[in-house]
């Protein structure tokens, strides 16, 4: 698979303290994503961080949103700046963009598409947690928007290993190239 790295960006999605703190086994995932970030920086590929978050009090959370409504009470009292902080081992460098989204997809409620257009990005390399959440939703929307997509399977994780396996081996290949960090690092 030949890729034009000139129009490529690495997306680091939902790799934030408030999410990883609740994910057992996050250490190998963080290590792999750190390697992907180092590779992107070495190759001068833009790294774009995507975090989920809300204003204090979470006024964006609707009682009709099954995924977020169950956590509405905890969101209302949560320190959102601490929740949205990217894991220290993956922290953005000066000049790297962080996009805040308000729902599961990296596009929903964010200015991601404006940033991608400004940088001339047509190919996204996706990393993140959860495979069945941000990675799935972003893949679907990016495909509908005619972006080329690569998913680094070992730089994504899900609370359900079987769901991760099914998505990366059966579902994602319909719309994206699913590769490993090692394969991407050789490109």
The proportion of residues in beta strands is 15-25%
Overall pLDDT score:
91
- Calculate the terminal CA-CA distance, rounded to whole Å: 9 Å
Helix content: 25-40%
Indicate the low-confidence ranges by residue numbers: none
Question: What does this molecule look like?
Answer:
The protein is globular. Strand 5, helix 8 and strand 6 form a beta-alpha-beta unit. It is 40% helix and 20% strand. It has 187 residues and is an alpha/beta fold. The N and C termini lie close together (9 Å).
Question: Which structural traits does this protein have?
Answer:
187 residues, alpha/beta, six-stranded parallel sheet, globular
Give a short summary of the structure.
This protein is an alpha/beta fold and 187 residues long. 40% of the residues lie in helices and 20% in strands.
Write the layout of secondary structure elements.
Blueprint lengths: L7 E6 L3 H4 L5 H17 L4 E6 L13 H4 L2 H6 L2 H5 L12 E5 L10 H8 L3 E7 L1 H14 L3 E10 L3 H11 L5 E3 L1 H5 L2
Parallel strand pairs: 1-2, 1-4, 2-3, 4-5, 5-6
């Amino acid at each position: 698979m030949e890729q034009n790295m000139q129009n490529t960006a690495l997306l680091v999605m939902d790799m934030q303290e408030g999410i990883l703190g609740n994910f057992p086994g996050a250490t190998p995932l963080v290590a792999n994503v750190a390697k992907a970030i180092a590779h992107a920086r070495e190759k001068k590929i833009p790294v774009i961080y995507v975090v989920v978050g809300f204003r204090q009090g979470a006024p964006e959370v609707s009682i009709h949103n099954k995924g977020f409504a169950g956590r509405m009470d905890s969101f209302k009292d949560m320190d959102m700046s601490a929740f949205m902080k990217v894991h220290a081992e993956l922290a953005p460098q000066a000049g790297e963009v962080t996009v805040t989204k308000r729902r599961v997809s990296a596009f929903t409620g964010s200015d991601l598409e404006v940033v991608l257009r400004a940088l001339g990005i047509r190919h996204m390399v996706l990393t993140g947690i959860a495979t069945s959440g941000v990675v799935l939703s972003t893949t679907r929307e990016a495909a509908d928007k005619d972006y080329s997509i690569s998913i680094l399977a070992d730089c994504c994780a899900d609370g359900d290993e079987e769901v991760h396996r099914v998505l990366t081996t059966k579902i994602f290949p319909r719309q994206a190239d699913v590769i490993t960090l090692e394969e991407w690092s050789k490109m």
